[in-house]
Protein 1
Amino acid sequence: MRVIGFNFTKVVAEKMKGFKPGFGISTNINFIDIEKEGTDIQKEDFEALRVSFNFSVLYLDKEKKDSKKAEVSLTGFIILMASKEESKNLLKDWSKKEISAGFRVPLFNFILKRCSTRSLQLEEELNLPLHVPMPQVKFGKKESKN
């Protein structure tokens, strides 16, 4: 299975009025649909699949768990080139709204890689705390070699 395409179809970033510290952060990836995709790339033993997803980061009030204080949501799709056997298995599992770990883990990793960078940019623009800590370089005294 290879990724041959990726696109965002909807990008939402919103901070509610009166946003203050005291929140919990929830990050989710939901698969919306998996279907066959027609492409210009024709290979005899392969099929293209469109995997639609939603990646969201919710800032929830700690006291009122249902109360959303801010949100970053990215909806999009991935186009995969899979063997006919892989395609058949994935579509069969999806008919039960399931995805086997062999497919789910690489898809999650790809979505996290592509969406985390975009969501961090949007969080920074809205002055929201980042859902993933950014690495920092710390300067200190050099240790002497004795």
Protein 2
Amino acid sequence: MGFGAILGDAVKSFFKRRIKIKPGRTWIPFDQIDYILGGALFFSWFYLPILKDSISLLFIGLILYIIVNVIGYYLGLREQKI
């Protein structure tokens, strides 16, 4: 799943550069779910989860991403909340 997550991020970055979004700029919602989609797609070769599990994984991942980034902002570790 780790390889799939990195591959998902690389694919997102490829398309992000093609539409000329500068490095470091946010591309919502793809910056938040690229690693989840990549990991899930790569892992689906070994196990095919039901649709409910896949949607839950995306939703939980997106919510956790937002929570962690807001906490990082208030701790002074990030310049932007999201």
Protein 3
Amino acid sequence: MSEGHSGETEQGKALFEELLWVHDMLRRDLDRIEHLAREVASGMPGAAVEAELRELKTGGPLWQLKVNCLRYCRIVHLHHNLEDVMLFPALRDADPAIAPVVDRLEADHVRVSDLLDAVEAAAARLTAAEEDARADVVLTLDELHAHLLEHLDYEELNAGPVLRRLERIPGF
């Protein structure tokens, strides 16, 4: 396989570009969710929130994979599960020195998973009469937004160089 100046492989470069593509979609939809959180905090009616969530489920390429439920949460869970099972072991094999980075990314995945579950639970309780649920939705979305963006940036910066050198990911 041809390699660039920094030891990049064509496959590794393609894998990194795919990671960036998925992360860009996650960031774009996080922006939409952040806007929705502000609307919820301002008293947006429950029916309007549901309509926005339905639009979010179907508005982009990833959302077309829907079956039901909040697709965003499921897509992030799926993306992280694939990384945990396939990507991270390959990164560890390719460069054992990356172990602390992968350890942090794995811990981030657990935290993001908990936050996604909290967002789903808060959204399920959201009604026009339940102000506590509105506050919970806003707080959990804000926390998810901040933590997930930090996670994506960290992963790209710290795992990207090793990912770009991979020849392949076993099973992928």
Protein 4
Amino acid sequence: MEMGDVEEYLQRGIAFKAEGRYEEAIAEFQEVISADGSNNEAHRQLGLVYGFVGLFDESLEELKRAVELNPQNLGARNDLAMSYAMLGMYDEAKAEFLAVLEIDPSNEFARRELVYF
């Protein structure tokens, strides 16, 4: 798969996710990851979809992988923090929001959510 194809699969997966076509979205993101395992956005999107369908362990695994691949991806970090919060893992959620604010002290999303902890 060429890089252009990777982006095409990623965008198609995002479109499927937006339409609620989660199984198709999962397949697209898995294709991207099999071609480019270091694609942090594919891991992030796959993690989000896994969360939508109730695969919470897999969701956390993929979101953590996205953050490992690119610690500067604040969207992935906020998504991971929100997933932790939804699962009652409040210490982990707080730590992740604090990590976002270390990178970007003006991050409104993290600032707003941190109030709950």
